[in-house]
Design a protein that fits this description.
Blueprint lengths: L1 H6 L5 E4 L3 H7 L11 H8 L4 E4 L2 H7 L2 E4 L19 H13 L2 E7 L7 H12 L3 E7 L9 H6 L4 E5 L2 H11 L8 E4 L1 H31 L4 H9 L20 H14 L3 H28 L8 E5 L14 H11 L3 E5 L5 H12 L8 H9 L1 E3 L3 H5 L4 E4 L11 H7 L5 E4 L15 E4 L3
Parallel strand pairs: 1-2, 3-4, 4-5, 6-7, 8-9, 8-11, 9-10, 11-12, 12-13
Antiparallel strand pairs: 5-6
The chain binds uridine-5'-diphosphate-glucuronic acid (UGA).
Length: about 450
């Protein structure tokens, strides 16, 4: 919305949320999310044609076009638990829009949704209020965190699905302020909804594929970066999204694939469901494998050993930790009784502790006394990568933050227990010649 406000000074953009604390943060210079370049865009437009407010009803009444951009987490209860998307918030939005609207409005699904959700939204809108009429569009978002501003500024494509040509044209006109028309793709509603899930499934599949091959590289003398480079130069495959890692994270890939799996099962396509589910299973395997390698290499025990965790966010340039591989690696190391010392340049201590606590909660919804003790006694959060490594037996690199590449490895080596191990879950230190500095270096897939 900030980018639309920036590129379309003639359009008045209002961002509403029922959470006053969140809106206050958007109205300050301490935005609730870290995203390079975003503050500058917000500062440019705020007070001009970009407003953040909790006045939901008034804003709905005044709007000609309404984007539903609420979260659609994986259901944790009832039918489809662990797979299907929880559409509670989308439905509540639709009901509220229906309740307070008059005249004609275009409602745009921006949240990632299962195929045919637009139908549900349409049904709610057309049955609750007879004085208003609605068109529903699907306009999934393809930006990635950490590069959101760049991605919005110059997207590969914008996808708009709908039934009414007038409504489609209205949204095309918004994006056409800065995006070439040939990149504005229009489809039917269902294709648009499915394309979003399929795009994320294909991207995640590439990561799981390269990670699967990384396991084989570790068992042989092949090197995954060399293999990825060799396959990526085939123009039919292409070089992007072939970086082997400790596993993909983020709020989208796993959730969207599980949602796709649920849809396939629902429509009686178990083989298709199983095919895609394997992408998530491979990712879980990759995270577990990373911990197993650490434990085996540290002479089969990490109990009471200090392990430095470099990076907790699910990728660099974001403070988002949702589904971050770091959460699961830390949990498994704690279960092995390791002492972990975590440093991330952007994630707060509170957020790290909360994420770990959630990951250690048992199936009964409770934290055992043993887990509580591990979280209290075996986890520290520190202010630098050097502090995390101080007297540690090993460093585990879990996020590819640029600053890790320029750490003072000579001093760090001195401060560590010997032998000093580095497990590089992002293969960012491969070029740093850590072997020559005395470290035992283990990259992914080599
Ligand atoms: C992803 C998609 O890339 C976006 O197009 C989409 O809009 C977004 O989900 C969404 O559905 O909202 P995002 O999750 O922000 O974006 O970040 P990605 O850059 O896709 O990275 C996802 C995870 O895969 C990260 O943990 C990253 O480190 C990992 N990854 C990515 C690899 O391990 N290797 C790679 O080669 C690429």
């Amino acid at each position: 919305m900030a980018m639309i406000a920036k590129q379309c000074p003639n359009i008045d953009v209002k961002v509403v949320d029922i959470n006053p604390k969140r809106i206050a943060q958007w109205n300050s210079d301490d935005l609730p999310i870290y995203e390079p370049g975003l503050l500058e865009v917000v500062q440019e437009c705020r007070g001009r044609n970009l407003t953040f407010t909790t006045d939901v009803e008034k804003s709905i009444k005044e709007a000609q076009m309404i984007f539903i951009s609420v979260n659609t987490p994986t259901k944790t209860f009832g039918t489809g638990a662990g797979r299907a998307a929880n559409l509670e918030f989308v439905e509540k939005c639709a009901r509220q829009i229906a309740k307070v609207s008059s005249g004609h409005k275009i409602v745009v699904e921006k949240s990632t949704l299962p195929v045919r959700t637009a139908e549900a939204v349409k049904t709610i809108l057309s049955n609750s209020n007879h004085s208003a009429t609605f068109d529903v569009l699907s306009n999934p978002e393809f930006l990635a965190e950490g590069t959101a501003v760049e991605d919005m500024q110059s997207p590969d494509r914008v996808l708009i699905g709908g039934e009414s040509q007038d409504a489609i044209n209205a949204l095309v006109d918004v994006y056409a302020h800065w995006i070439p028309r040939e990149r504005l793709l229009t489809t039917n509603l269902w294709s648009s909804e499915l394309s979003k899930l399929a795009a994320n499934a294909f991207l995640a599949q590439r990561v799981s594929s390269v990670n699967a091959i990384s396991a084989l590289c570790e068992a042989t003398e092949a090197d995954i970066d060399e293999v990825a480079n060799a396959i990526g130069t085939d123009s039919r495959i292409g070089p992007k999204f072939l970086k082997a890692s400790v596993g993909f994270g983020g709020s989208c890939f796993q959730k969207d694939i599980l949602n796709l799996v649920y849809l396939c099962e629902y429509f009686g396509l178990p083989e298709v469901a199983e095919y895609w589910e394997q992408v998530v299973k491979m990712n879980d395997y990759q995270k577990r494998r990373f911990v197993t390698r650490i434990v085996r290499t540290l002479f089969n025990t990490v109990s009471d050993k200090k392990i430095a965790i470099w990076g907790f966010a699910f990728k660099k340039d974001t403070n988002d930790t949702r589904e971050s591989a770091a959460i699961y690696v830390c949990r498994d190391l704690l279960e092995e009784r390791a002492k972990i010392s975590i440093y991330d340049p952007r994630v707060t201590e509170e957020q790290i502790r909360y994420a770990l606590e959630q990951a250690m909660i048992g199936p009964d919804g409770r934290l055992t006394a043993a887990s509580e003790k591990l979280l209290k006694d075996n986890v520290e959060i520190v202010g630098s990568s050097a502090a995390a490594a101080d007297r540690a037996h090993a460093i585990a690199v879990l996020t590819e933050w640029d600053e890790f590449k320029t750490a003072d490895f000579t001093a760090i080596y001195q401060s560590m227990q010997k032998p000093a191990f580095v497990f590089d879950g992002r293969n960012i230190l491969k070029q740093s010649n850590l072997g020559n500095k005395g470290f035992q270096y283990y990259g992914i897939g080599s």
